[in-house]
Each structure stands twice: as C-alpha cells, then as structure tokens.
From TrEMBL:
Stated family: Belongs to the ABC transporter superfamily.
SMART domains referenced in this protein's UniProt entry, alphabetically: AAA
PANTHER family: HIGH-AFFINITY BRANCHED-CHAIN AMINO ACID TRANSPORT ATP-BINDING PROTEIN LIVF
Organism taxonomic ancestry: Bacteria, Pseudomonadati, Pseudomonadota, Alphaproteobacteria, Hyphomicrobiales
Keyword entries, A-Z: Amino-acid transport, ATP-binding, Nucleotide-binding, Transport
Presence of keyword Endoplasmic reticulum: no
A single GO BP: L-amino acid transport
Protein name from the UniProt record: Amino acid/amide ABC transporter ATP-binding protein 2 (HAAT family)
Amino acid sequence: MSVLAAEGVVAGYGAAEQILKGASVRVEPGEIVTIIGPNGAGKSTLLKTIAGLVAAKEGQIILSGKDVTSADAGGRAKAGIAFVPQERNVFGSLTVAENLEIAGFLDPAGASARAEGLYATYPMLAAKRRALARTLSGGQRQILAMAMGLMSNPSLMLLDEPTAGLSPKAADDLFDAIVALNRDGLPILMVEQHAVEALAVSHRGYVLVSGRNSAEGTGPGLAADPEIRRLFLGG
Ligand SMILES: Nc1ncnc2c1ncn2[C@@H]1O[C@H](COP(=O)(O)OP(=O)(O)OP(=O)(O)O)[C@@H](O)[C@H]1O
Ligand SMILES: [Mg+2]
C-alpha cells in the first residue's frame, strides 16, 4: 500500500485560476521522492495541499489507504504527515528546546523522551538546546525544523526546499541527514531547486509544470534525461 497517493489534485488560492490543475504524486514505503519544476509551477502549493493547508477542490489524498482529503491540517498531522515549510519553519525567538517542546503538542506526555532521542541523533541540537533558534546557521535551522517534524512521530515527511539558501557544503550535509533519516525508514517527499543533487539521493522524482505532471521516473533516470537536464538542470 502506498504511503501517499495524491491523485488529480486541483487546488489554488481563493477565486483566482487554480494553481494545481490535476497533479498526482505517490510515495511508496521507504522512498525518497523529489518534485522539481520551474518557479511558480505549484510545487509548494502541492505540498501545502497534501498537508491540508490548502483545500483540494478536486482529486483525492490517500494516506496509507485512508482518505484524508477532507481532513484539516491538524487531522493530517494526527494521521502522520509532518510538513516542514520552506520559510518560517522554526520560532527564532525561542530556544531549540522550546521549539522541540512546542512541536511535541500532539503527544505531550511522550514529548520529552522524544526530544532526548532527537538530541542523541543530532548532537548539534543537544549542544545548542539553550540557544535561540535565530542564532543557528541555515543548515542547523533546517535540522531543527526537521527535528520539530519528527516530534510528532510522522509516517511521512514533507520538505519544501530544505537546502534553499544553504552553502554547497551545508546543502550536502543536509542531504546526508535526509538520507540518514530515510534509511531509518521514514518516507520523504521533498521539493528541491538543487535538482541534480536531490534526484541523486531520491528513489523517484516528478517534474511539475504549470500545475500538472510533466514527467516522472527514477531519481537517477530523471537526472540523466537529456530533455530534463536541458530544461531544469542547466544542461
Ligand atoms: N498564498 C498565496 N496566495 C495567492 N497566490 C499564491 C499564494 N502562494 C502562492 N501563490 C501563487 O501560486 C503559484 C504557484 O506558487 P507555488 O509557491 O506553489 O510555486 P512553486 O512551484 O513552489 O514555486 P517556487 O519554485 O518559486 O517555490 C504562483 O503563481 C504564486 O504566485
Ligand atoms: Mg515553492
């Protein structure tokens, strides 16, 4: 059974023209799946629709066999979706520990044990637990944002451009952290501008153009496709 099957999703903002015009994406157990596509294609809107922050006007969102299309964002979080948005994904004026505490709201009783587990996995967070989140480097902040998502013990992690604004070295380190998380069994659906690097660590990928699926394939297969390279990967 697929972890996620989003089929024929039509969605947008208000009364304006729909941004997603029938987009579909699937995540199987154990996969890293990456969505690439030009600016404004609707990649972030698709993640937000899967997370329940934008309503699907048509189509279905099935999470591990359960139809969550009409569930709100809280319901989707309870159903196992963790969404790490591209921006404002940590509370800068709170400490690392406070950010994790807030992110544990779905299971307050288990939150402190869960935070301790995350400190063991990410020693940087343990070292910085009393630091304000805004003092972290870009890469450290992304690790904190992912750790906040992990506080709810998700069955699927959505990451919107996790390496945006990072140096090449920090982006590499973050991809390593994403791969390590996936090796522990967590399925991941991410949107990335660093398409070559992201597809290289992905089992499968999708190309989204103007709110519709334009291509799909294995990560390495898409990264090697001449047409995809010409259009999206700078030759
Ligand atoms: N909150 C919003 N209200 C109205 N329109 C929006 C909103 N968010 C995004 N849009 C519009 O929806 C379209 C798709 O935006 P979206 O952010 O999903 O694209 P994207 O593929 O993630 O692009 P990028 O690569 O730049 O992140 C754009 O035309 C954008 O202006
Ligand atoms: Mg976006």
